Amino acid sequence: MTGKLTTHVLDTARGCPAAGLTIALWSIEPSGEKTLLKTVITNVDGRTDSPLLTDGALQAGVYELVFGVGEYFAQHLQDLPQPPFLNEVPLQFGIADTTAHYHVPLLASPWSYSTYRGS
User: Fold this and answer.
1) Is residue 74's pLDDT more than 70?
2) For position 32, which CATH number holds?
3) Structural domain tally of the chain?
4) Could you tell me the residue range of the domain that residue 45 belongs to?
5) Burial (0-12, 13-18, 19+ Cβ within 10 Å), 40
6) pLDDT tens digit string along 35-68?
């Protein structure tokens, strides 16, 4: 079985997938040093067109997804305060089993967010 990392974003303020939202994926070394692995933009379903990591690229370790919610909501909602309450939402998580599917969704509004490990 091959492991993979996926994500999706739901816009809870408007009740729809968050299409066009920028996501950066970082790996984090035990020293704290970060390496940018890729930057992607969500599709019309609020998902990435392909898994963020698969096969040998999915290694055990600590990762961070940084979701550009401030820019996204500025494009879709009017009368938001500047600077925004939420701008970039970082989610750090660990991958222990490289054969598993790690799905890390984000449910977001301009004022709150939640996440969970999905399937």
Assistant:
1) yes
2) 2.60.40.180
3) 1
4) 4-115
5) middle
6) 999 999 999 999 999 999 998 899 999 999 999 9
